Task: structure prediction
Amino acid sequence: MVPEPNTRFSTAEAYALLAFVEAGGGLFVIADHAGADRNNDGVDAVEAWNGVADELGNPFGIRFDGNDITESPNSNVLEDAGDPVLHGAFGHVAATTYYNGATMRLDPMANPAVKALLWRNSASRELVQVTFAVSRRGAGRVAAI
Result:
């Protein structure tokens, strides 16, 4: 789990994240929202994660938008009774609360395994305005919010 990184990942760090996932690791990406530069170095989590995508050719198929939204409840959930993230041992996801977060754009050309699970309430369940996504790379998995 990497919550809200506030500095750019080095090239070595970006490749280490990719190698970890490809070898079977699970990565939970949290980007917060544009402008959440907690250490005032000019980089927020959106830019840090998009820097990894740019450095590596978007291996997970996920890019964050430079926005800041709040939706409560956020109930535009994928209807897939077999999805293990949405329907697991601890219950079923019907909605989330999304306070000051960035949306995502998904790129299945970069990674065909990328999948949206939640969108903004006003979104038309496409590859944009995604609020929670999952992806696979090699033997590993990625979840992003």
In short: The longest helix spans residues 11-22. The chain has a mean pLDDT of 95. The helical segments are 11-22, 45-56. Residues 61 and 109 are 8 Å apart (CA to CA).
